[in-house]
């Protein structure tokens, strides 16, 4: 552990270990301080000599440093998950409505109702806490023998459901909650918010629910980078299947995590964009550990600033080209539409693979196709090798810069259950390998692996799969030697 820390500190890239979250590549032509080609390169320690539980938790137990200068490649984490719409970290709020018997609150009706605003529990994040509490309340009865209280003989009680909060805007959520509770108390109803307990000695109360958002810790895709790093300890230095020798070809390190703002999505995007501008400025190719898919938007802003509009290989169950949700233009379902809006993509060189699932429209892929994207549905990949498809992709991409964005939900949930928005009948791990290995020879300028949600990854297999796919991405980068 001391050797790893010393290696990171010796390179001295700003303030402290753990400030950056991606895997970056630097080329000698971009940096005057670049080491000679025959200089020793960082090597993950072999389990023959160093026990796997030993050392800092870095990707493949590589040295940790805070500066991309002199690196060929670097792992970077972006632990952001506030742009999600379903499960925590890639996540959907509790049911927006659960009507009480009266259907509304009326002056003098004597209603007691329950409301929900919860911190996360070990099994459920705050936004699903209210739902779980309701499920477990079925064993409760009407009388309290210990105190003699008869609440349901004394008060009119109902469940008013959940406040329909804005998952992507904390300030707007506070406004919605405040307005909801103003309406409740205006008619003399006492709100009992789930998680706060029942008030006693009152004649009017109301139960209401609102999803948590301003949290600073929860098991979710925000913790995806950490979990992926933990599962990377089984990875070794050589890829026998492809003959790739990444650690003999490139200088690689783990740059830690971008210090995102958990309470402000726009500010987080700024922080991510600035971090990646610094990484690519020295010729380093970032390999990102997400985080939800929102993180790809600011990363591509940094990429386009350096390379101009880039090609995109997007592997996902969803196109992520929605326009907005809950009035917000930015969340994990909109990043590539925002990229098109800003001219970050070379739309004739965008391929989306693995797309599937139900939709609210008959043609959910119309926007992607209207922009010139090639959309490959999951059903067109069933029971076949994707090697021929990737040959076509290589021809389409040519020699210009390309970015690879891989959402783990592209895989069938049988293989990758630990994600926020799973869809059945997805890709297989072997097809994922064919896609990534098919990128060999392309001018890849960056990659990401997003939407791993440890909360739903009880076995760790999803994070293990993610770690291996990131290793395959490293092996497919330019300048990697093969034997």
TrEMBL record:
Pfam families: Arginase (PF00491)
Taxonomy, superkingdom: Eukaryota
Residues covered by region (Disordered): 29-49
PROSITE patterns listed in its UniProt record: ARGINASE_1, ARGINASE_2
Gene3D superfamilies per UniProt: Ureohydrolase domain
GO biological process, one term: putrescine biosynthetic process from arginine, via agmatine
Cofactor list: Mn(2+)
UniProt key word Metal-binding: yes
Record keywords: Arginine metabolism, Hydrolase, Manganese, Metal-binding
Oxidoreductase found in the keyword field: no
PANTHER family named among the record's database cross-references: ARGINASE/AGMATINASE, GUANIDINO ACID HYDROLASE, MITOCHONDRIAL
Family that this chain belongs to: Belongs to the arginase family. Agmatinase subfamily.
Protein's recorded name: Guanidino acid hydrolase, mitochondrial
